[in-house]
Design a protein that fits this description.
Elements lengths: L1 H28 L2 H9 L3 H16 L3 H6 L5 H17 L3 H15 L4 H31 L6 H26 L1 H21 L9 H43 L9 H15 L10 H12 L4 H30 L9
């Protein structure tokens, strides 16, 4: 009973934090009346453009997985990625929870345990490394303008350090069976913890399984890592396109907020969203992005409107597609371990 209570308390605290941000903090930055006025001013062509970019974000979500698991159908890859992402938006846990859920859904699609574990590990590594490096890229782009704050520098440095640690661990696992065994065992423990938290069967991966799959698929990785990298970049940067369009749709010009500053704010939001603070990072992601943009001197009401528009365009389609996919997964039995 202790774990369910702890999970319930954590969820309640996350919801309370999100409510506190929107109820007490955001109105101090801009009134919701002024924000609503800016949102109402968005023209139909901008709405269509944002909707198209949001659709592109959904459609490209399956690309990294198909780069490693070409046996997945296009619809299957999109469905399971949106389902796992939707669950992480309503449950606390961040990136580790998303990886554990992805493994379970891949098994229901008939992917063997070894292949699923290897794909989850690699897509997770590729995704997190890029997310942690984006703030460093954004800080470098903004550096010349003189608008780079000390907090942005600190976030960029910390996230780049975290990305470097992940790279070192990944390279070690790929080069050494012993390191792969240790990393696989650690991932198995994390997955088992989340399974107990959600009252599900623990995932059947381990260090030995990762070592076996590493030996079997290392040659595949040597040929597929370029396509995995390109697919991950395309999917993640499609979300940045949604953010850029949201900024311009509410009337923020390139002179007021250059793309370099917009990219840094988006990158900081991506880092925050990968942390298990609130379900889907709701509240804290918006606050981080808004705070960064306010520091650049853009109009407050426009900033809040753009961030809320962006988050809605990213979250709502994922929840809808993910809910439909989850409904289908309910009637698809898990395959036997393989």
């Amino acid at each position: 009973m202790r774990r369910p209570r702890r999970a319930g308390l954590r969820s309640a605290l996350g919801v309370a934090l999100a409510v506190g941000v929107f109820a007490a903090v955001v109105p101090r930055i801009a009134s919701y009346r002024s924000v609503a006025h800016q949102l109402a001013s968005v023209s139909t062509p901008w709405v269509i453009a944002i909707a198209a970019a949001a659709a592109l974000d959904v459609l490209t979500a399956g690309l990294p997985w198909r780069a490693l698991l070409p046996q997945l159908s296009w619809l299957g890859a999109i469905g399971f990625t949106q389902a796992s992402t939707a669950l992480t938006m309503v449950l606390p846990g961040g990136a580790p929870l998303g990886m554990a859920i992805s493994f379970g859904l891949l098994r229901r699609l008939g992917v063997t345990a070894g292949e699923a574990g290897f794909a989850v590990a690699l897509t997770g590594i590729w995704s997190q490394v890029m997310i942690f490096l984006y703030p460093l890229v954004g800080a470098a782009l903004v550096f010349g303008s003189g608008n780079l704050s000390s907090s942005a520098v600190a976030i960029a440095g910390a996230s780049a350090a975290a990305g470097s640690v992940i790279i070192v661990l990944a390279v070690a696992a790929l080069r050494s069976p012993g390191a792969a065994r240790s990393l696989g065992d650690a991932a198995g423990r994390v997955g088992a913890w989340f399974a107990r938290l959600l009252r599900r069967q623990p995932p059947d991966w381990s260090g030995e399984a990762l070592v076996r799959v590493r030996e079997e698929r290392l040659s595949d990785l040597r040929t597929r890592w370029p396509s995995l990298t390109a697919a991950t970049l395309l999917n993640q940067l499609s979300a940045y396109l949604v953010f850029e369009l949201s900024l311009r749709a509410v009337g923020i010009s390139f002179e007021t907020l250059p793309p370099s500053e917009a990219f840094l704010a988006w990158a900081i939001g991506r880092v925050i969203s990968s942390l298990p603070l609130t379900p889907g990072g709701i509240g804290v992601v918006e606050l981080g992005m808004i705070g960064t943009l306010v520091g650049f001197g853009a109009p407050h009401a426009h900033i809040v409107a753009a961030v809320l528009l962006y988050r809605g365009a990213i979250i709502v389609p994922t929840l809808v597609v993910g809910a439909v996919a989850l409904f289908g997964f309910r009637f698809k039995p898990a395959r036997a371990a393989g």
